[in-house]
Amino acid sequence: MNKIMFFAHLRDAAGEFINMEAAGKTVAQLKAEVAEKYSLQNIETVMTAINEEFAGNEEIIQDGDVIAFIPPVSGG
Amino acid sequence: MDNRYSRQILFPGIGKEGQEKIRSKHVLIIGAGALGSGNAEVLARAGTGKITIIDRDYVEASNLQRQQLYTEEDVAEKLPKAAAAEKRLKAINSDVEVAAIIGDATPEFLEELIQGVDLIVDATDNFETRMAMNDVSQKYNVPWIYGACVGSYGMSFTIIPGKTPCLNCLLRSIPLQGLTCDTGGIIGPAVQMVIAHQTAESLKILAEDWEAVRTAFVSFDLWRNEYSSIKMSRAKYEGCLSCGENRTYPYLEAENMMKTTVLCGRDTVQIRPSVQGEIPLKELAGQLSSLGYEVKGNPYLISVDLADSGERMVIFKDGRALVHGTKDLIHAKSVYQRIMG
Question: By CA distance, what is B36's nearest residue in A?
Fold first, then answer.
């Protein structure tokens, strides 16, 4: 099982976190799935962390990994 | 004023030697909005040798809630932010050389501005400028500190050429629509928290305490009581066009820049963004109308009345936009990026 956490405005659509089975999927696959489920826009440029470490789109998720989606913001 | 920096010199991370280093350094701050104001004030008070600050806008009433260098008088006079910032910074610390530039930080201009600069502080409101800043930083080997905030949420990351991954490693492309303060709102403490992270990093770099520089990507949400730190050691992307072996500095090339044109005979500027892609028009319209903007639309475009400045902007599905009510290219670009990020 995996815990998937959402940050900033993603949380308005998807909530604080969800638990789902994501082992074996790549980050890109998980992004696509989650984007579809919660109609999240522009998920491609959302940064991903696995167990508090940056993860690229090709990275494969292991059982028990905690995944966080962190959207870069631009206000200044 | 021998006593002026005594408390900072007492701090072991800086000391007398660190203070002398800070005194000898030149910082370039891109943007004089909320982050620019705060960063500039801290660095001026800390005794930085020279501060160059560039901004293309003037002070408006809606800035005063969080942009700490400005006053009601500046709003009444419609002073350009760079000019108002210069006046205030010189009043705060006359030891500091302040160069204020009223203008647009285009890639071409950034290559000029970076000469002799030791550090760039990001205080801009859009990713197009940040990507250009990132390329200039890599090309001329000058560190920069990313900072951004919206709502109660903020983030910062320090980029040191040759050591850390760069912004292009992390994003790989310009986010099509980043949330901005004009679309997502913003509270003062989120601004201050980003400023605290950016200025702490600035002081470490200016004092040359490289060991102390933060390598993690920080993000926080002050309303939801969260703080997270992400390790970035594996984020460096070998094929990165900005910092990889076969680098081309793509965001310094003309074809990757946003294009603005005055439409002949009409009081209108057309804006063509550097990235092509589909804008979620319905969501954007919903967001803007919930913020009180007058929005009309159909499946192909939305039209937004910008009551603050009197213009109207029409945004098409492919990201192209028309700003009606101005012939000023820089102003139109600023209006566009405030909404689109």
Answer: A76
